[in-house]
């Protein structure tokens, strides 16, 4: 007599079903993992592509700036009617550079763009050429305690000058300050303003400022007043208000006359008559100031859908030619000011 089918145990069939379900789950996880990796790879490739495109746009901005610099020696005095022949403002930019002014251009290229700014690299006071009294003017303006001035300047002189003779309050390589840090004094001119951070008696508070606290009054940073480029004369057409006020002879009313003269006869910035044409017009000392620059700072920022890449370069002008003497580049971090 055959056994009743209703009495069969479902063990084997249930186990097979569980195995099938587990296989389906594992396969689903594998497929999902592959899909996630593919999506992640696509995002990375897209980001790298946009970053590369932003870098190439920044390079384009540098070349655009180079063309302006090469043309500035030929820039003619534009008239209002010439503006119709200069829709992108290229010749106006060349004219502004010829006059020692700053200029900014933004150019759209496909889905991206670059913004390039040309400005004098001699709009600050040259750290390598300042006299002791000039340093005292700057430190006084920055609200640095006068008890520190002699030590700071003597240490800076010892950092720059050849030999190992100490200034009265200075420090050479045998000073514990340098021995503890493992580097000697340079015995040469500074290559950047930030190099002051390596010098005894100087530090971030001096360069970038600090708020008042229990230890003392506020200090106003001096980094923006300084440069390492040029012959020591400051470009009067682009120097900031603070740079001009760092000169003891400048009073507020004299500064106002300089700023007005920069805007030309129409009093409007960014127009064709901008720029001081003669130092005598504003009573400026030709031993301290100039109107054109031999070194121009170029900042080019490429942008592709929010991904930005920045290049900073210093061009030395030699007649009709220009030559790069400084170069720095890198991506712009999110939230960082592109300028």
In short:
With 339 residues, this protein is α/β, with parallel strands linked by helices.
Overview of this structure, please?
- With 339 residues, the chain is of the alpha/beta class.
- Among the domains are: 46-121 and 293-331, Pantoate--beta-alanine Ligase, Chain: A,domain 2 (2-Layer Sandwich), CATH 3.30.1300; 125-228, Ribonucleotide Reductase Protein R1, domain 1, CATH 1.10.40.60.
- It contains eight helices and nine strands.
- It has helices at residues 11-72, 90-98, 132-141, 149-160, 176-181, 204-208, 241-245, 252-262, and strands at 103-109, 112-120, 125-126, 226-227, 234-235, 289-290, 295-304, 307-318, 321-331.
- The strands form three sheets. The protein has a five-stranded antiparallel β-sheet with strand order 1-2-7-8-9.
- A hairpin with a 2-residue loop joins strand 1 and strand 2 (112-120).
- The longest helix has 62 residues, at 11-72.
- It starts with 10 loop residues before the first helix and ends in an 8-residue tail after the last strand.
């Amino acid at each position: 007599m055959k056994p009743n089918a209703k009495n069969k145990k479902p063990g084997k069939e249930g186990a097979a079903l569980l195995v099938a379900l587990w296989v389906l789950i594992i396969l689903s996880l594998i497929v999902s993992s592959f899909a996630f990796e593919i999506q992640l790879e696509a995002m990375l490739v897209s980001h790298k592509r946009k970053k590369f495109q932003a870098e190439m746009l920044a390079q384009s901005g540098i070349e655009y700036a180079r063309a302006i610099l090469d043309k500035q020696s030929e820039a003619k005095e534009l008239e209002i009617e010439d503006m119709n022949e200069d829709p992108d403002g290229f010749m106006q930019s060349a004219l502004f550079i010829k006059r020692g002014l700053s200029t900014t251009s933004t150019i759209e290229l496909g889905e991206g763009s670059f913004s390039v700014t040309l400005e004098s690299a001699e709009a600050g006071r040259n750290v390598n050429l300042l006299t002791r009294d000039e340093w005292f003017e700057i430190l006084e303006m920055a609200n640095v305690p006068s008890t520190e001035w002699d030590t700071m300047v003597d240490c800076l002189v010892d950092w720059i000058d050849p030999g190992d003779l100490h200034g009265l309050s200075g420090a050479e390589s045998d000073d514990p300050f340098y021995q503890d840090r493992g580097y000697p004094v340079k015995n040469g001119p500074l290559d950047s303003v930030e190099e002051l951070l390596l010098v005894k008696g100087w530090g971030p508070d001096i360069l970038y400022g600090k708020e008042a606290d229990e230890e003392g009054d506020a200090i106003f940073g001096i980094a923006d007043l300084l440069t390492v480029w040029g012959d020591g004369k400051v470009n009067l057409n682009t120097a900031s208000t603070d740079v001009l006020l760092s000169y003891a002879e400048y009073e507020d009313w004299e500064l106002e006359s300089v700023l007005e003269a920069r805007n030309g006869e129409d009093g409007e910035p960014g127009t064709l008559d901008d720029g001081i044409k003669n130092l005598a017009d504003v009573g400026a000392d030709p031993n301290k100031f100039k109107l054109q620059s031999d070194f121009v700072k170029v900042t080019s920022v490429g942008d592709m859908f929010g991904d930005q890449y920045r290049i900073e370069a210093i061009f030395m002008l030699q007649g009709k030619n220009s030559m790069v003497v400084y170069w720095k580049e890198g991506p712009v971090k999110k939230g960082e000011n592109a300028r």
